[in-house]
Amino acid sequence: MDQKLFRSRFNFHQICHHISSAPRSALTRKAAVLIAVMEKDNQLQLILTQRPLHLRHHPGQISFPGGKVEADDPNLIATALREADEEIGLVDSNVDVLGAFPAHYTFTGFEVTPVVAMVKHPFELRLDSNEVADCFTAPLDYFIEKSNRHTVEFNRQGKAYTVHVMPYQDKFIWGVTAAIIDLLCRHLHVKN
């Protein structure tokens, strides 16, 4: 899939509202993540990060650049763009925001809004070691292949929940990040 096809499929289809996530909590903290798609080696790649082990929430997990809404963020898109700049050095002038998906909820009390954007030009990574242990890209085509997207049942306090999991090379993507990738792939309506 190239940028033109990605943009047309993303913009053509109605935003999917069937989201697999934790139940909505009465006390949620709003957050936003950036699904940054870039072209590399003639294929579209997702930019993903790995969180450091010292973080209180989701230590060591694979995630998209993003974080909690701050008081001076005018909206959730601004939150995702600010966080991407702070975490990996992807400045807002280097992305073309295409839209946002509905929020996902986490068991840790976050309401996470995924913002989809196309990276315009290659950029030099500048990692904030307090928030990001590693940053890497993964080909979108890998995740579009349905056989690379899995679900498992997870029991929490006597209730069964579906959790998305996606092994990729030596990485294990799961939870809300995997659910967002699954949502993106389903939204693009690629049948496999």
Automatic annotation (TrEMBL):
InterPro entries: CoAse, NUDIX_hydrolase-like_dom_sf, NUDIX_hydrolase_dom. Keywords: Hydrolase, Magnesium, Manganese, Metal-binding. Residues 28-160 form the Nudix hydrolase domain. Its cofactor is Mn(2+); Mg(2+). NCBIfam families: PRK10707.1. This is CoA pyrophosphatase. It comes from Shewanella intestini.
